[in-house]
Amino acid sequence: MTLPLLVVVLGPTASGKTALAVRLAEHFDGEIVSCDSVTVYREFEIGTAKPMAQERQRVPHHLLDVVSPLEAFTAGDYARLARLAISGIRSRGHLPLIAGGAGLYLRALIEGLFAGPARSEDLRQRLRVRAADRGPLHLHRILARLDPQAAKAIHPNDVSKLVRALEVCLTASHSLSTLWQQGRDPLAGFRILRLGLAPDREALYQRINTRARQMFSQGLIEETRYLLQRYPAARTLESLGYKQSVQHLRGEITLDQAIALTGQGHRNFAKRQMTWFRREPDVQWMSGFGDEAQVQQQCLEKVAAAL
């Protein structure tokens, strides 16, 4: 018996993943499961580049606006909810499509996560303060003493992963690398078709810069002011666009600097995304944007051939 198909549309920010996923979903009677670490939060709209209202009306979308701005949301939470959404889509006889650029979330969904210890927000905050005071390299040196294998796998400037690795070392009976070796709980029961978008770098950077300017012209500063007043402790305010808007509202940078820094941050993020996704197995890469007719036609043919 042939297993049902799961289509994954991946690629860097601003590469047209949503447009492609909507086109495929409309053609093949599908539903889209978002794979993004910030669109899960309610009330964060402009800076997250969520699918537009008309796109959501054309095709059912899942895992948008599922948690409040003050709730913690992990890759494990995403994997659990995404698997439930995929199961529901299949039960309705529709094609599930995953669309997004959160590489860790996608990996958690497809490959599963190890059974690590529960979060300790107090410990995490103390480690973040230590990183802010002494620099990320200080945390990396501590991790190198406690878990050399994990330290080799984590970049010295990746504070979030360093904090999690140290949290595991300090609260669990095993190191992070030991838990990695114990295995995971991969997604079962599907054939996975990965469609990757790899547009020309300079063209992508131009789109990223345009998107950054549009976010601010559409009211990102005003949205950030509202969110900052209502949810001053929301960690999503540290994400790209919102962070620069907060800096501008505090008088630390000009509006032009906020726009430029947001564009630069997203360009750097796109580089990291492509580095991550190049390690994904069996990706069928498209050398263009997801809203281009030729790319959409190629992907339509690939999905049709896989069904």
In short:
With 307 residues, the protein is of the alpha/beta class. The protein contains 14 helices and six strands. It has two domains: 5-113 and 185-306, Rossmann fold (3-Layer(aba) Sandwich); 121-181, Histone, subunit A (Orthogonal Bundle), CATH 1.10.20.
What does this protein look like?
The protein is of the alpha/beta class and 307 residues long. The chain folds into two domains: 231 residues, 3-Layer(aba) Sandwich (Rossmann fold); 61 residues, Histone, subunit A. Helix content is 54%, strand content 10%. The protein is built from 14 helices and six strands. Helix 2 links the parallel strand 2 and strand 3. Helix 5 crosses helix 8, helix 6 runs parallel beside helix 8 and helix 10 crosses helix 13. The protein is globular and about 55 Å long. The mean pLDDT is 91.
